[in-house]
Structure formats: structure tokens, C-alpha cells
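Worked Example 4.2. Consider the chain below.
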Amino acid sequence: MSLETLKNALPDYARDLKLNLSSLATEASLTQQQRAGTFVASALASRNAATIQAIVAEFGPQLSAEALTAAKAAAAIMGMNNIYYRFVHLMGDSSYKTMPAKLRMNVIGKPGVEKADFELWSLAVSAVNGCGMCIEAHEHELRKADLSADAIQAAIRIAATVHAVAATVEGEAALAGVEIAQVAA
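Applying the procedure from the previous section yields the following C-alpha cells:
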């Protein structure tokens, strides 16, 4: 599936998502690697097969093999970290904040790409997964690396749009299943 096919699969009520996908695909405030990796990591975080296939088919070739692996690694490690650190953040018992996580996170230290790019992809996944603690930590690292607020916002706009596309595609598939079940009954 291509990005164009994915956009065409969106219903008319999601026209804004189609337009956002098109404009974000050429977002100028990010490098090609940052943009493509953000799309890939966000798609993987969306957990929707059609969205993942279309996004990786479109943006995967824009990444080196190492960068594609790093974008996948950002989605994977943040899938774990976002759950853990959201728990730590939301717990009323502050003792959890002083406890070591005891989770392996070696890829964060050696992601195989520029640290800022990996942080950007981790930020996008953290936004999709709703972990405030991780969002703050990754945004802080990006600002230390002199990434502009415009670039950071662009990555979050990509994450938000990709997530909305995935939810819409999945919702429409579920509705189609309901409609088919009603006809069969």
C-alpha cells in the first residue's frame, strides 16, 4: 500500500487528515531523515497495519538501513518506556520516582543515528502514547541539541496526523465489519 492509497482510503469526513499527510510529507523544518523517521516511528506506534505498511513503503526508502532500524527501535523502546514512566508519573506514591527502572534501554545511548534524530522520534512516539514524563524529557534533550521549536512541533504534528489516520482507518474497518454482520443477520 502506498501513501496515496492510504489517503484515498480515508473517508470524506477525514479530508483534513489527507491534506495534513500531504503537507507534512514535505515539512521543511525537518531534515529528510528526521521527517521520514518521525513518520515511521509514529506509524509503528499507531499499531494499525494498513497505516504502518503505507508509511513504511513511502518513507522507509528515504532512510538508510541504520536510520530505519533506529526509527523502529524508537517505537519499540518508547512502547515500553511510555508505559513505565507514565505509571511513575501518575502514581501518587512518589517513592516510585526514586526507584531504578531496571529495564534495559541501551538503544537510547547508542541508537545508530544522530542522537537528536532518535530523541525526536522518541518524542513523537511518546506523544502518541501519551506519556507526559517522556515528552518533557525528550523535548528537553532536543532543545539542548538546539532543535527549533518549529521542528519539534512539526514532529508532533506528524505524530498526531499519523495517529488520527490510523484511528480513522481502523474505525472504518470496524464499521465495515459491523455493516457486514448486520447484513448477514
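The chain has one domain: 3-184. The domain at 3-184 is CATH 1.20.1290.10 (AhpD-like). Compare this with Example 4.1 before moving on.
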